[in-house]
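Problem 12. The chain below contains 93 residues. Write out its predicted structure in token notation.
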Amino acid sequence: MKFVDLDAMVENNIIHIIYLKREEEGSIRTDEIRKERKNLFIKRSNIYEALMKLIKKLPKSYRYRVIDKIEEYAEIIDEENSAYMEKYYETRI
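Solution.
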């Protein structure tokens, strides 16, 4: 017979719920945060446009491979950030 550690399960569920709630709270924006995010969006947009111009200069046989690798890279960054934030909220309660 396998015993289940209910305390650990409850604690993990509570931590996960708090993480999700804080994630929701992160969507609440102050004017300062909106301005900062707008500036970051502008920077990101400019970089994206420059990158697309460079990619368009590549031979067609390379374009899609480069775009795929960039997307894969961005997904990994998102996964790393998500994992970091989850660990942060688990340890900073």
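Discussion. Residues 6-91 form one domain. Students who got a different answer should revisit the alignment rule from Section 12.3.
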